[in-house]
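Today's session is about reading a structure prediction critically. Students often jump straight to the picture, but the first step is always the sequence itself: look for stretches that repeat, for charged clusters, for runs of hydrophobic residues. Only then move on to the predicted structure, which in these notes is written as discrete structure tokens rather than atom positions. Here is the chain we will use throughout the hour.
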Amino acid sequence: MNRRIFLLSAGAAGLVAATGATAFALTRTPTAALLPWSQAGASRSDPRRFVIEHAILAPNPHNRQPWIVELTGATTMTLYCDLDRRLPETDPFDRQIVIGLACFCELASIAATAIGHRLEVTSFPEGEPRPRLDRRPVAHMTLVRDDTIRPDPLFAQVLARRSTKRPYDMGRPIPADAVARLGALTSPSILVSTITDPVLTSSLRELTWEAWQVESTNKPTHQESVDLMRIGRREIEANPDGISLGGPFLEGLSLIGQLSREQLADPASSAFRQGQDMYRAMLAASPAYVTVVAADQSRLGEFDAGRAYLRVNLTATALGLSMQPVSQALQEFPAMDALRAKLDGLLGTQGPKRLHMLARLGYGPAVAQTPRWPAATRTRTA
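Below is the predicted structure for this chain, in token form.
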């Protein structure tokens, strides 16, 4: 442990000791922001709300939760993008936002099977918006009662799914049957691949680190992330979206003045450098990767890739594997163009194909749930 991290840790430890370690730790959990996880499925008498309560737990970029669901009938819903929750610097064409919205739809479809329904989803019913999303609907959804349907096996993984932002076990390879299970999620329009080759994974570890450096040293893109950081329980519960920096250690650093948005935005600060050290160590501990590639570069391809990614994430969970998107190199702001082209060259994903998801894969530690807005705050009635 270097001297800087030691001093910060000692300061936080002193604060915890002074306030009572157990009491301090217990009060740092953002309990209210985690309630949507335990409340999922509470509205079993209303199939629409049942599926929405599960769908809001879907992965999405920067945890922006960009969905608005309009209840249009007894069995019908329309999904819109909350245009204020986009990421214009790192996602200038809303590609990543579309993927998050598609994850929502796929999770809703899986949840519907648990109550004897299928969910019919029509994406972009009024056309594919370009170059960015607009006020047109992203999807129409209709619940259809089906007595022959059985619960999707992946429904059992919904509450266990995580994006695990921790180092993975480099001494534990991905089993061949797991590679096969993930590859079986390939469809005519989407290719799912697992990368375990030592030479290629080494190249990807280097490239993903380079991409993180590009994003974090490019002021507009880094500031976009900093502006969405929620430091400590109070901020997380007030805004349970964005990037949560919680727990006793980080909140302790904040309370002694060693962790703030201003410091995190400054590449010369100790807080920035400590975050850099932690992220680099995490990326270095990536034994494998999984990719999701669309056959073309349409909005529908983005949407299909998002639906496939959600199933990949849940399947990995069922297999005891951890995943985390490392999407910086896929971003479309000018400073990332060279690395994105290099990544496509490494993976053979040049046009007309489109690489939509690159995620670390391996065996990682258990991590906490991600805060969520309650389903009622993301729902409206027509």
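Discussion point for the tutorial: Confidence is low (pLDDT under 50) at residues 1-16.
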